[in-house]
Amino acid sequence: MSYVFPPAPQASVAVDGTDDRLPVRRIFCVGRNYAAHAREMGKDPDRDPPFFFTKPADAVVDSGEVVAYPPETENFHYEAELVAVIGKGGKNISEEDSLSHVWGYAVGNDLTRRDLQLKAREQGRPWDWGKAFDRSAVIGPVFPVEKVGHPDKGSIKLTVNGEVKQDADLNELIWSVPEIISILSHSMTLQPGDLIMTGTPAGVGALVEGDTCVVEIEGLGKIETPIGKREA
User: Fold this and answer.
1) Where are the beta strands (DSSP E) in 2-142?
2) Does 24 reside within a domain?
3) How sure is the predictor about 37, in pLDDT bands with cuts at 50, 70 and 90?
4) What is the pLDDT of residue 112?
5) How many CB atoms lie within 10 A of CB 64?
6) Handedness of CA 38, 138, 95, 168 (dihedral sign)
7) In total, how many domains does the chain have?
8) Mind spelling out the 3-state secondary structure of 37-56?
């Protein structure tokens, strides 16, 4: 058998302390998983089942890489997030067993074309154009669980040009990492290389050309994203 054209390169992210790369299979994102962010988006925080959207695996961008201001938007936003990385697959995973499926954790930035997302929301359409565009998932080096454990508290902070925009604690998540993994696995089989972006705190806002966005999570270091000129 041969392919009719060359297959795409394997999307991957860095691993802390090594030159190895971690292959990315899928990227799941949890919507409105901090109460204050839910309120700033005009929604009531509650404990209804969480909802998810996805980004393509090849949307990943390493820390330090320039992200061009994307096309078709006038309201390009940052979103600081904790990322859980699945290392052992499974389905119908119990909440009690969920953390045994995690390989590690990373700092993430869920870049968003907010105007397109909100327009889709108003029209009852999927969020893909606002969330799943090229280079929309900045993912820092993944820290193995044996190095960092399972972060469930600690500072999550984002700055733009040195000014603090988001400042919260991981213990403010509405749905915890074990709960998220269990719920996802009851809908579809999770596999190694699946990334879960667990939601963003309040304080989301716009980025412009020339900005430098930094996200830092206690125990997981920081990632930096310079914003380049608008794509043609």
Assistant:
1) 12-14, 21-23, 26-30, 52-55, 60-61, 67-68, 76-78, 80-86, 102-110, 112-113, 137-139
2) yes
3) low
4) 98
5) 12
6) negative
7) 1
8) HHHHCCCCCCCCCCCEEEEC
